[in-house]
Each structure stands twice: as structure tokens, then as C-alpha cells.
Amino acid sequence: MTQAISKLDNFQDECNSLYESDLNLWLEQTISQLQAGDFHNIDTTNLIEELAGLAGRDRRELESRQERLLEHILKRCYVDLPDCHRGWVVTIMHQRSELKKILKQSPSLKRFFSEAFEESFLTALAIVKAEYIQTKFPDTWQFSRDLDALLKADFWEND
Asked: Does the predicted model carry a pTM greater than 0.90?
């Protein structure tokens, strides 16, 4: 029994060492083990950590792109600088495209998009207020919060 525990400890030390010294090699090895069905030897501790990190990364990227989208919609709708409108619209188009890709790959993030909306809006609002101190921005979102509308509607078309 002591010998089995010692082997397990040595295996875990080797996994941690590889994980810490060469993440890519560790990933390749873990993928190979998964493909071969060698579940017994998989470094589950670090695998779980990596998977949790991936989920968090996707949420952070979605939230960041959402903030940038809202920021540029606010600029386009409220800042009276017609020479800048095209650039803001192009940025809106880029952010929408990237958000669609993220949501296509991970549809479950649609729920997070809605949950993060208010915080993203407040961050975007703070940024545009600091950037355009002469412009009066509304303190609440004045348009639809519907995901499809946010990814398609030209809210500024009524100007």
C-alpha cells in the first residue's frame, strides 16, 4: 500500500513538473492520454484547472467585447462628431461579428451575455463619459437589451 501511494505521489509530481515547465507538451500528452482512453494516468487536478480557466476566459472575452460594443453604440448614438461615425460603426460591426462567433461556438454564453449586460453598460458608460465630457449620455440603456437587437440593430438610424 505504501509503495502504491509513493508511485501515485511520484506520478503527480511528474505531472505537476511537466505542467509547470511546458504547458503545451503537457496539453499534448493529456490529449493523447484522453484519445487512448488512458484515464487512470491523466493529471486531473491540472486538467480541471485548465478547463475552469477556459470557461472563465470565454466569459471574460464575451464581457470585454460586449463592453466595447456598447461603448461604440453609445458614441455613435450620442457623440456629435460625424467624421467619427464610420469608424465607430466599423468597430460595432467587428465586435458584433466576434460576439456572434463566440456565441455560435458556446451558445450557453447567451445567458451570461444577459447577466453581464448591466455591468458592461456601466463600464462602457464610464468610459465614454470620461472620453467625451461635453456629451450628455443617458444613465440607463435607452434601447433594446434583446441579444438579437444588440447584434443587428442600428440604434442610431433615427438621428
From this structure: no
